[in-house]
Every structure is written in C-alpha cells, then in structure tokens.
User: Fold this.
Amino acid sequence: MKFSIDRDILINGLSVVAGVVEKKQTMAVLANVLFEINGADLTITGTDTEVQMSVRVLLETPIQGALRTTIPAKKLLDIAKSLPEKQLIEFIAEDETKLILRCGKSRFSLATISASDFPSVDKGHDVASFALSQQALKRLIDKTSFAMAQQDVRFYLNGMLWELEDEVLNCIATDGHRLALSSSDPLQQLQAKQPKSQIIVPRKAVLELSRTLSQSEDQVEVFFGANHLYIKNSYFTFVTSLIDGKYPDYKRVLPTDLGRVILGSRQELKDTFNRAAILSNEKYRGIQVMLSPNQMTIQATNPEREEAEDSVVVDYQGDSVEIGFNVSYLIDVMSILQDDQVKISLSSANSSALIHSSESQKAMYVVMPMCL
Assistant:
C-alpha cells in the first residue's frame, strides 16, 4: 500500500505529537507514533500511556481501504526535517515490519511495530463539558503554569487544578511558596448547567497542551472525566490521565484584610527587582522590600557581603513596613502580567502579597514572605 503526504504538513503534525513520546520508555512501541489512514485522512498519535495526543492531516491523494501501523517518532521527524521543503514524501508499506520512505533521490527503510501493540488512554465517562477558544485556554494555562511544583513529594502539587464553577474555568497552580490563579470569561456550556467540578492535570500534560494550543479564536471542546481530561477540535485530540489526590483549598491562601496597597509601573518594578537579584543570595534569592510613602526600596545581600540597593516610585500612602520576598517569584509575576500598572496588596509585614493588574483580577498571584 502506498500513500503520499506533503513534507511540511507531516512535520507540523509530527512536531505536535512528538512531545508526548517519551525519550526513555519501558515499551518499544512507545517510541513510535501510530499512523491510522482512512481514505485521505491520516491521524498521527503519540502516547506515554498517561498523555495521548493525536492530530489529523490530509494525504495528497486518498488510498483504497485503511492502514494502521506504528513508526519510530524521532527517526521519522528527523528524516522529514532533513528533506527539502515543499516536497512530497511517498510511503510504501511492504509488510507489517517495514515501511519505505521516498523523496526525490532519497530512500529510507524504517522498522515498524504492529498497531495492535500501541496502547490507548481511556477517555472514560464525561462529567462536565464546555467550549472556549484556543487563545483563551492557552492564556489561562500560561498565566498559571509557572507556579506548578516540580517533583514535589506532595504529588498533587506537581500539576494544575482546573476548577469549573459558576460557568467559569479557574486554573490554579502552587508550589507551596507562591500561588497563581487565572479565571476565564463565562464559558459556552456543552450540556445542562453543571455542578462545581475539580480535576488535577499533570505537569507534563499542562506543558504539552500549552505548546499545542495556538493564539487562534478557533474553539476547542473540553470534557472533564472522573479520571481524565479530554480536549478536541477539528485538528487535534488530547487525552490525559489525572492526578488522583485532593488539592489544597486555594481560597484559604488568598490574603484578606489588605490594608496596604501599592500601585506601580510593572516594567519599572520588574527592572528594579532584576537589578537587585544580581547580588541576592544565589540559593535563597531573598530581598528586603521597604515601603514608605510613594517609594519602594529594595535591598539584597549575599554571603560574599556584596550589597545592592535600589528604589522605585510607587503610589503608596500607608505606614512604613519591611518585608522579605524571594525575588525570583516577584520577577516571574511581573513577567507574566502584561498591563502597564500592577497592584500589590499586603496586610502586614508577615503576610503574603496579593499581586494583580490594577484593572483586572482575572489573573491573581500570591507570594509568601520569607525571613531574612
């Protein structure tokens, strides 16, 4: 059986799927991608048994019948990238163990594994569903994902909480020292009014989904299951298993009684924090923030007894206060926010800081203080 596909279309599809494929796997077939052809439709699927990504592309001409096989993912992508642009790649399936690729004078023979050995992530039963644009979902993820923990013993922190409540999707991430919360506009429901639902999406799935989503206004359909998250549109299908655990009550972390409010230029604050960070302790990254009317002064020291001091003009009318923070956390927030002005609220020298845009609270960040 023969089929042909445009080299650039193949690379685009493989690039989306290849990120899911594990570099080190316990099963040989997990290093492969699944090719499923029916007529002119080619579906390419990659999985690590926890996360599964599929894309749908068109062949140059339809084939008679159907074909299912698995091909080494990295080798196929490397071959495709090495070939000239805007060329057709011809595939010839000689038997169940070999696939021939031809493009111009180039010829490659790849070993295949039977599609019957390729695992599938079970989508299970859906308990909630909604639709929103790719751009909106990507925004929610990107404004939150940086605060996820990495390899924390509290396994439920190594992911992102997705909460469906009052027709709004909230994405929450925390590593125990900071918290990020981003909320959507009212969602388009795909079924009758749904109860509050929460799922914990694994870190790898979050990062792969962010990489796949575009800035397009095209809609994606999202389905929450008891053990899975399922997302699809006309081009890709994404399925991931969920983290089985209870996420902390993030609302209890949001500080209250915020009597001290600072308004300032996001870029000026980011630049000041970056300068102070140069001489901060490389391990703990602590800085001292001193507030006085209309001014924020930042000090940093390190074990070599080097010091940095800088100040920035802010709108602040409260009493003087000193508080320590991890400067990297503050820089991360200033880098994620996009508006010109930011609002930082505190209740005391020992309280967490609540940071968000001066005009919107759809994305909020909590940074815990540190002792210096």
User: Anything to note?
Assistant: The mean pLDDT is 94. The CA atoms of residues 30 and 48 lie 6 Å apart.
